[in-house]
């Protein structure tokens, strides 16, 4: 978060803007934060660009399978208008725009990060479309530039150094948690199975908001 004052307390997470597991995790975390009255805790959503990690763009059909499994099990209230045909060709510009939000201030960065995910997963908008990103820039009064693209690369390098294993990977003051609220497996036929990890969620919330 170079160029602005880092808030305290802050909950740091490395994630791809196109990761549906992150969308669920951030929504639940924000809902819990509101219920317990801890608006002082700010989410610092840093870039973990899976297309860089994997060496290839994300597959829309794979993401659609994950969305279907999430919607059928733990998140029936989310992904109302997800459309794989509108899946972005790259997530880098969107994550650079989130970085531009954090350059302005932490709460703007958080708001932009959550809005981009809502546009993709709840409103079937292509967040690699320059017109979509320009509208977000206008509404949040931020402007992405080459510094923010470099910030995506810096986040990836920092995440590798710190042992990020996937999206989302959360860091608190003393602990780190990879996808702490979901139990994700495949059955013998290869079908994706997702369940809410209630005990993991309670432990994670206690660490985040104690």
What's the assembly state of these chains?
single chain
> Number of helical runs?
8
Main β-sheet: number of strands, strand sense, barrel status?
4 strands, mixed
Q: By CATH's scheme, which homologous superfamily applies?
A: Glutaredoxin
Strand content: 5-15%
What helical percentage do the residues reach? 40-55%
Number of strands: 6
> Can you tell me the overall shape?
globular
- Remind me, CATH topology? Glutaredoxin
- Adjacency order of strands in the biggest sheet: 2-1-3-4
Gyration radius over CA: 16 Å
* Average pLDDT for all residues: 93
Structural domain tally: 1
Low-confidence stretches: 1-5
Give the C-level CATH assignment: Alpha Beta
> What CATH architecture label applies?
3-Layer(aba) Sandwich
**Structural class from helices and strands?**
alpha+beta
Written as H for each helix and E for each strand, in order along the chain, the element string is: EHEHHHHHHEEEEH
Measured between the Cα atoms of the first and last residue, the distance is: 24 Å
């Amino acid at each position: 978060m170079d160029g602005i004052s880092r808030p305290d307390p802050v909950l740091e997470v490395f994630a791809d803007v196109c990761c549906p597991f992150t969308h669920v995790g951030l929504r639940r975390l924000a809902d819990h934060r509101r219920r317990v009255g801890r608006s002082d805790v700010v989410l610092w959503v840093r870039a973990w660009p899976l297309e860089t990690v994997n060496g290839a763009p994300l597959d829309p059909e794979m993401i659609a399978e994950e969305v279907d499994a999430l919607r059928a099990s733990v998140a029936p209230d989310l992904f109302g208008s997800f459309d794989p045909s509108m899946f972005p060709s790259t997530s880098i510009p969107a994550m650079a725009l989130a970085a531009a939000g954090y350059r302005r201030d932490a709460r703007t960065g958080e708001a932009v990060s959550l809005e981009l995910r809502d546009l993709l997963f709840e409103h079937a908008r292509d967040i690699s479309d320059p017109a979509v990103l320009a509208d977000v820039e206008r509404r949040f009064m931020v402007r992405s530039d080459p510094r923010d693209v470099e910030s995506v690369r810096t986040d990836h390098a920092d995440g590798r150094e710190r042992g990020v294993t996937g999206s989302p990977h959360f860091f608190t003051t003393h602990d780190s948690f990879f996808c702490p609220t979901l139990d994700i497996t495949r059955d013998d036929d290869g079908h994706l199975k997702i369940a809410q990890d209630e005990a993991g969620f309670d432990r994670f919330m206690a660490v985040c908001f104690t």
